[in-house]
Amino acid sequence: MRSPFHGVISRLQAYPLGQIDLPVTIGDRANFRMEVLTFEVVDFPGSYHTILGRPCYAKLMAAPNYTYLKLKMPGPNDVITVGSTFSHAYMCDRKHHELPIGIVNSTELLKLWNVAVSVVPNYNKPTSTSAFRFTEETKVVEVDPSDPTKTVQIWTKLPTK
Question: Which string of DSSP letters, residue by residue, matches the chain?
Answer without folding.
Answer: ---TTHHHHHH----EEEEEEEEEEEE-SSSEEEEEEEEEEE----S-S----HHHHHHHT-EEETTTTEEEEE-SSSEEEEE--HHHHHHHHHHTTHHHHHHHHHHHHHHHHHH-------TTS-S-TT-----TTEEEEEEETTEEEEEEEEESS----
